[in-house]
Write a structure and sequence with these properties.
Blueprint: E1 20-21, E2 25-29, H1 35-49, H2 59-64, E3 72-78, H3 81-84, E4 95-105, E5 111-118, H4 127-140, E6 151-156, H5 161-169, E7 173-185, E8 191-202, E9 221-225, H6 229-242, E10 246-248, H7 257-265, E11 271-275, H8 283-289, E12 298-301, H9 308-320
Parallel strand pairs: 5-6, 9-11, 9-12, 10-11
Antiparallel strand pairs: 1-2, 2-3, 3-4, 4-5, 6-8, 7-8
């Protein structure tokens, strides 16, 4: 990526130019000259984009008026529109896509959210991925050449596999799921609060390898001791609070501790183990065989997890025992 020397941008705040040039695209902050081609880009791509995100030709003017160090809109331009476009098409514009870097939190966070759209006739040809990589590089670059951020995140609807694979191809890692995250219409225009999955990167991880796996950390593991329906209910509540699976010893049958330990070792986000009250001496052995340190595992009697407050306190203790 080439980052030019700072100059004066065409945005409303006349900020230092944040530009980069790749092999097939160039990236620059939005300017008034982008308004007309943006309208053409939206017109050609509306049917594809509206499945996941409402689009309007007036959006760009709104973003242009709000440009600042904490709200940036980057336009991705094809260097050679004729050669880069889909074969057989006659491109009416050179806009490959738009990337908003917004919701910037400064201070000790230095974080931001990115949102984006790719436009026809360039979508699906790798140009937008190249441009988004340049934008992420500018987001992490020191000011005034970049935005000076430490963390960037993007949230995608679970069904939008194309966008998910795009982020993963740039090395974004899954951070978590957000139910009812954004109020969005579907392709038929029905608005509803849509679930999203968040992916992110931090400055020390950049540039990242494509499809990088999450860093393995000690996950929260909790053991609920007890038997009967009340113990099952308590264990389920703890599992729901930690958002991890529940492993019940009775599901593995007699002598199934080895299988249980193998499953527990393969739970990357942690687990809750429902353990019979009469087998106290075997818990440590099970945890050790799963590669876990018993000192980092919270243990409680089901009878003490009799309300949601007790469950929340116990789950918090399980998380506190893990090493980040």
């Amino acid at each position: 990526m080439r980052v030019p020397e700072p100059g004066i941008a065409g945005g409303a705040d006349r900020a230092v130019s944040l530009c980069a040039v790749g092999h097939r695209v160039r990236v620059a902050p939005v300017s008034a000259e982008d308004i007309a081609p943006y309208a053409k880009a939206i017109a050609s791509s509306r049917e594809r984009l509206r499945v996941w995100n409402p689009v309007s030709a007036s959006d760009l003017g709104w973003h242009l008026s709000r440009q600042s160090p904490d709200h940036r809109t980057f336009m991705i331009h094809a260097l050679d529109p004729g050669a880069c476009a889909e074969p057989g098409s006659e491109p009416e514009h050179a806009l490959v896509g738009k990337v908003n870097v917004t919701n910037v939190v400064r201070g000790r966070a230095q974080s931001a959210t990115i949102g984006y759209d790719a436009y026809d006739p360039y979508a699906g040809r790798g140009l937008f991925a190249e441009g988004l990589r340049l934008v992420v590089g500018l987001a992490f670059a020191r000011m005034p050449h970049g935005m000076g951020l430490h963390r960037v995140e993007a949230s995608v609807q679970p069904g939008n596999t194309r966008s998910t694979v795009l982020l993963r191809s740039l090395g974004f890692r899954r951070r978590g799921a957000w139910p009812a995250y954004l109020l969005l219409p579907d392709a038929s225009g029905v608005e509803r609060w849509r679930d999203h999955v968040t992916y992110g990167l931090t400055l020390p991880e950049w540039p990242a390898e494509p499809f990088t796996l999450p860093i393995r950390r000690v996950p929260p593991v909790a053991v609920v001791r007890g038997q009967g329906a009340e113990a099952v209910l308590a264990a389920r509540r703890v599992a729901a609070e930690l958002a991890v699976p529940l492993l019940r010893t009775d599901a593995f049958g007699a002598g199934g501790d080895e299988a249980l330990a193998a499953v527990l070792a393969d739970c990357p986000d942690g687990a809750v183990v429902l353990w019979p009250a009469g087998r106290r001496e075997e818990v440590s052995a099970l945890l050790a065989s799963a590669g876990l340190n018993p000192d980092q595992v919270a243990v409680a009697q089901a009878v003490h997890l009799d309300d949601v407050r007790a469950v929340a306190r116990f789950a918090a203790r399980a998380q506190a025992l893990t090493v980040g």
